[in-house]
Design brief:
The protein is mainly alpha-helical. The chain contains 15 helices and four strands. Helix 4 runs antiparallel to helix 5 and helix 7 packs across helix 8. The longest helix is centred in the N-terminal third of the chain and has 32 residues. The chain is globular and about 70 Å long.
Length: 347
């Protein structure tokens, strides 16, 4: 099986055998500040021996193997048990104070967070090889040019549409006029203004609503574009349209409108998970499960702790991403040009 893009750029071995042999390792003084604060998500550090000076993840130094593994396992056990304790506490509160849906929802969220750290503990922190794999992945992600381009693209896109919404609100005199002119108003769509399906998702009800979507689109957008290629932009746009349409056609109608590009965020999640599961791995071992847990946690939070969540649209966006990951592979059987847009497809 072909290596993932991030692993094919690595020239260092994943095997548990260290770069420095026993004689060299014995001459290296262990710096507690390195293994105590270092995690795979962090940058490399300058490691010096009698034979070389090189920027490397410290897990590559044999003398740091056990200290780093002990430290990482201790941190992730603490986080797992901490969230599990919060789950038990909120579950008790829910049972003691009656049918308190808020406490029960938080209990479920904390249970998912505990499962997230447990999965990372088992899949990513159990062996030296797994830690190296995580370190390579984050090192590549933070340094790859496409990651920087993706970060810049999604940040610029999100800020541009939000500033445009503010500017139009000033021009029209109030925010309601902006939604009336460009938003996804169900009665207007029923009257034939279907172009609103393409514009309404980029408006937001509040600054908090926008900042929440901004955070997730920058994180998952950068990750998805770096791993799957520029085709993820088309998936983001398509998922926004599909999510808006199905929320209008099948979703709750309390507000008579929907807004926010969270449909596209769910589409990116679906596209990345689909590319990893249906084609070939593009993520480190166990990372796809962690993404699914984060997705479920966000879904539960938005559906049960926020008002008027667009549940149908979110599910439609997720399904759109999954379908796109399969459809692009089928298309490339007959056309070759889509392969340049998708890194995970065979060349």
């Amino acid at each position: 099986m072909k290596k993932p893009l991030w692993l094919s750029h690595n020239i260092l071995p994943l095997k548990d055998s260290p770069i420095c042999n026993g004689n060299t390792a014995s001459s290296v003084a262990i710096d507690p500040s390195i293994y105590r604060r270092w995690q795979p998500q962090q940058n490399t550090v300058l490691l010096s021996t009698q034979r070389y000076r090189r920027l490397l993840p410290p897990i590559y130094q044999h003398c740091y193997h056990l200290p780093i593994l002990r430290n990482l396992k201790s941190k992730y056990r603490f986080m797992t048990l901490g969230y599990l304790s919060l789950f038990i506490l909120f579950l008790f509160c829910s049972a003691y104070f009656g049918t308190n849906s808020t406490a029960l929802t938080w209990a479920i969220i904390f249970l998912f967070m505990s499962a997230l750290y447990l999965n990372e503990y088992i899949a990513g922190m159990s062996r030296v090889r797994a830690v190296k794999e995580r370190a390579f992945f984050y090192r590549w992600l933070f340094s790859h040019s496409l990651s920087r381009y993706a970060f810049l693209f999604y940040t610029t896109l999100a800020l541009s549409v939000f500033l445009a919404q503010i500017g139009l609100g000033i021009y029209y005199g109030n925010e309601d006029a902006v939604f009336y002119s460009y938003g996804t108003l169900y009665d207007k769509i029923t009257q034939g203004e279907y172009w609103r399906l393409a514009t309404g998702a980029y408006l937001h009800y509040s600054t908090l609503h926008f900042l929440t979507n901004l955070f997730f689109v920058v994180v998952i957008g950068t990750l998805t574009m770096a791993l799957t290629g520029p085709a993820s932009i088309l998936v983001f746009l398509a998922a926004n349209v599909a999510g808006t349409y199905f929320q209008y056609a099948l979703g709750a109608q309390e507000l008579q409108s929907c807004a926010g590009f969270s449909f596209g965020v769910y589409g990116l999640y679906g596209f990345l998970i689909g590319a990893n599961c249906f084609h070939r791995p593009v993520l480190p071992k166990g990372f796809c499960i962690s993404l699914a847990i984060v997705l479920m946690t966000g879904f539960i939070y938005s559906e049960f702790l926020t008002q008027n969540a667009a549940s149908t649209g979110h599910f439609a966006g997720l399904l759109t991403g999954l379908i796109c990951s399969i459809a692009l592979t089928l298309i490339t059987r007959y056309l070759s040009w889509p392969r340049s847009l998708c890194h995970y497809l065979p060349k």
